[in-house]
Amino acid sequence: MVVLNINNVVCSYDSVKVVENVSFNVKTGNFLGILGPNGSGKTTLLKSVSRILKPQKGTILLEDQDIYRLKTVDVAKKMSVVSQGTMIAFSFTALDVVLMGRSPHLSRFATESKKDVEIAKKCMAYTGTLNLANRLITELSGGERQRVIIAKALAQEPQVLLLDEPTTHLDVSNQHEIMGILKRLCTENKLLVVGVFHDFNLAAHYCDSLILLKKGKIVDVGKSEKVLTSKNIQTVFGIETLVKENPITKSVFVMPILTSPQTHNRNLTAHLICGAGTGSSLMKLLIDDGYTVTSGVLNLCDTDQETAKFLKVPTAEEAPLSPISDSAHKKNLALIRKANIVILTSFPFGKGNIKNLDAALFALENNIPVFFINEYPIKNRDFTQGEAEKKMITLKSKGLVFVEDNVCLFNALNNLCFKTLTDKSMSSDKISVPTTLAQKSKGVN
Amino acid sequence: MKLKTKNTTESLEHTRHWKFWLITLTLALFVAIFLSLNLGYSSISLESIFKIFLNKIPIVPNFNVSELESTLILSIRLPRLLCAALVGAALSVAGVTYQGLFRNPLADPYTIGASAGAALGATTAIVLGISFTFLGLTSLPIFAFIGCILAVFLVYSISRVGTKVPVQTLLLSGIAVSIFLSAIVNYLQTIAPDKLHQSQFWLMGSFSYTEWTDIWSVVVFIFGGVIAIYLYSRDLNLLALGETEAKHLGVELEKVKKILLISSAFITAAAVAISGLIAFIGLIIPHLTRLLVGPDHRVLIPASMLMGATFLMLCDSAARIIVAPAELPVGIITAMCGGPFFLYLMRRKKKADVS
């Protein structure tokens, strides 16, 4: 059992502290991932663990021995390091490069024996590079070269393997192949692997535990489900993310949500009548554009409902897979009454959610403009034997504004706001749709 | 760590291929030695050459050879060609070392100020008219040797940051120091125009006045340096992966760098002292040899040594013959042969890569 102990390590360049009081332990058979933004001290930490940069304070113990008190060659026998973007100056063959990994085990005058060549070839077979043995390292592709370099690290027969962004610059299949190799090394060969990564999902899937670094300090450490939370990622990277579980692999899955620069608050409320994922992106766009957004009626577990929940959008909700009840409908109408505009998306209608069209009608009857994003023909999404289609005709006659897509919608909304601003009628409860705009939108349609 | 994979058995093919090249290059060196002894303004037959050598062996009965030929071979041609071989070997090994150390194909023995230092040393001796002998060497080579070593140490100490010597800084300060020293050389030549011809001739490099004492006085430096470098040939291989990588593989980086720099500085200084500045050898021989034997320094170093020795010896013979009875500075020949030949090799390799 090998344990790597990092105790209160402090590293600094000149007077700037890059790593501050970092402590953690890793044991044999464990795969630890270090995550953090650029400049958070990941690489510096790895450098100090790999005996390149002596820390100002703290100790790094491998099997209870301070690595900075061991000889370079003795550390090389126990620990191998895969650095970022290793470039090889001369055209050695791939086998030659892997054989270099045997170097710490050879005395100054010895040349590699048959046994060394055997070890090198086994390591190449392990990383799937044996067929490249006689190729020149300078002629290999990025993925092939990285796997040869990992084979070289394995040829050192280490107990500890450290890697600095081993999958950066590689395509997605090579990334998974390399992570798979590292994972197998931990589980089958009882290696201790520590890697610096940039890809949350890759790290979450393969690593046993993760460390989240910010400005040289550990923010959180533990299993990926514990460490990779929206809140932690917001603190460390300053971006909004949606953290879910990959439905198939069950590992943590982080989806970044692009945030546009915060615009002014428009003091306008838009109510979204949507469902089946047709309103999710629009919700975000409207919020980013300064609207207050409400929505309904949405069934629980519906994609739009999940988005609404995540974006903290007030929503009239109904139980999963259930028809809209009177109470949910009433709640929806209450939300509509508070809204300045209503937007209806092209989602499918069945007996269960037909009431949402009544809600739209309610809005029009109360002089709230209703915009309809006409993306899919009603015929294809009407599962009510023509009832929905009929209601759409009624809505049209009552002044439903047709727009082709989100872009048209925002153009129409901007025109409307501009109009209301010049009319100085912002304070008035309701906004009337200028007929020209309604005409224009119909023309587009 | 144990890996569960199929067992593959194959011997070390490349060591066999190393032996082939080392034997071939050694044979080529001996052929070149006899060819060079044979060629010259007065041609001496190979038979006479063998007789002269056999006469030197005590047990063998004496053959009848002319006194003149014997003197020509043993006191003039032999020391001269051995000196060329020694300098060729030295510059090639120094070139291999610098290219490996700096991971830079354009590095050569003169990269870090060695040539400019030697030139300044020699020019100073010539301009000031200093004349003495020490250990059989005249003042000029001694000054060149000292100048060379001092320049390298100046560059080294300028580049040192704490306990580390970053190679980029070393290369850059090498260039800066070289420019500065060359300016002093030019200044000295300007203020002493009567000595211009002599110093210019030395700067071009030549073996015209070589004697046995020249060889004996530098051979220790050259062989000592070559052996030291050879001991670290595996570390030079690891340095091809980058300095940090080499460290991860157990190389005591700063110590090894220091040993390699000092050894190659002494080799270069010794070579420059007895020959002047001979361009191109230290740059092209390592490349040429790498094309033949591959980049592994364990074979590259001895092979470059043999190759450099053979090449410079043949160049010197050409320098003696082409405009006989006059002579060309050998540096002109090395540059004239080396340049186009190098380009030809490069082109051929490119074609091979494309097809």
Series of H and E elements of chain B: HHHHEEHHHHHHHHHH
Q: Which range best describes the helical content of chain A: under 10%, 10-25%, 25-40%, 40-55%, 55-70% or over 70%?
A: 25-40%
CATH class of the largest domain in chain A: Alpha Beta
The outline of chain A comes out as elongated
**CATH topology grouping of chain B:** ABC transporter involved in vitamin B12 uptake, BtuC
Terminus-to-terminus distance of chain B? 42 Å
Task: Name the structural class of chain B.
Answer: mainly alpha
* Major beta sheet, strand line-up of chain B: 1-2
Strand content of chain A: 15-25%
Low-confidence stretches of chain A: 424-430, 434-445
Q: In what range is the share of β-strand residues of chain B?
A: under 5%
Q: What is the overall pLDDT average of chain A?
A: 87
| Named CATH architecture of the largest domain in chain A | 3-Layer(aba) Sandwich
Total DSSP helices of chain A: 17
> How many beta-strand elements of chain A?
18
| Assembly status | heterodimer
CATH third-tier fold name of the largest domain in chain A: Rossmann fold
What's the total helix number of chain B?
14
Number of domains of chain B: 1
State the gist of this model.
The complex is a heterodimer of chains A (445) and B (355). Chain A contains 17 helices and 18 strands.
How would you characterize the overall build of this protein?
- The complex is a heterodimer of chains A (445) and B (355).
- By secondary structure, chain A is of the alpha/beta class.
- Chain A has 2 domains: 3-230, P-loop containing nucleotide triphosphate hydrolases (Rossmann fold), CATH 3.40.50.300; 269-444, Rossmann fold (3-Layer(aba) Sandwich).
- In chain A, 38% of the residues lie in helices and 23% in strands.
- Chain A has helices spanning 42-49, 72-78, 94-100, 114-126, 142-155, 172-189, 200-206, 224-227, 230-237, 280-288, 303-310, 326-338, 355-365, 378-381, 387-397, 406-423, 435-444, and strands spanning 3-13, 16-27, 31-35, 57-62, 65-66, 79-82, 160-164, 192-196, 209-214, 217-222, 240-245, 252-257, 269-273, 292-299, 315-318, 341-344, 370-373, 401-403.
- In chain A, helix 4 crosses helix 5 (142-155) and helix 12 (326-338) packs parallel to helix 13 (355-365).
- Chain A is elongated, with a radius of gyration of 30 Å.
- In chain A, 43% of the residues are buried.
- Residues 424-430 and 434-445 of chain A have low confidence and may be disordered.
- Chain B has 355 residues and is mostly helical.
- Chain B is 74% helix and 1% strand.
- Chain B has 14 helices and 2 strands; from the N terminus they run ααααββαααααααααα.
- Chain B is globular and about 65 Å long.
- The A-B interface holds A 50-52, 71-77, 79-81, 83, 86-93, 96-97, 100-101, 103-104, 106, 108-109, 111-112, 114, 117-118, 121-123, 125-126, 130, 154, 156-159, 185, 188-191 and B 1-12, 14-15, 100, 103, 231, 234, 237-242, 244-245, 247-253, 290, 294-296, 298.
